Amino acid sequence: MLFVGDGWGKSAAALGYATRSAGRGWSTLVVQFLKGSAWNTADSTAGRRLGIEWPSFTRSLTWAQGDPVRLAGEAWTVASDAMVSAQYGLIVLDEITHAVASGWLDERAVVSGIAARAPETSVIMTGRGATRRVRSVADTITRFDRVKHAGKKGILG
Is the pTM of this model over 0.85? Predict the structure, then answer.
């Protein structure tokens, strides 16, 4: 699956699927390719309580505060090893399209890695946009459009 678009909620939707996966007793992994551990501590804390594996690659708010190419490489190694292991029912690759678009990850490696995943492993990718090749490896694509959002008025509550 691929969740794309300028609307908010792509990661939240993917995490909803991760919650369902954990509730079914599937091994579940969330790999974030942009957000550091300081970004959504409530999400990762709740996910870990449910048994979701959620490695952190930086303590910063975002990868821009560190070495994004190195961090993306570390995260991709974890994700690609997990995809072929047949250990996971679901793997969420949050903001992976940003990592590809920014040149932090090789597009061909990402596409071939996802295509080579274990048959019993589902993958959800998120990000604002996706290349044609990344789209080609997704079996379902859902677009999130921002029609109106209170956050743009300074209301985040």
Answer: yes
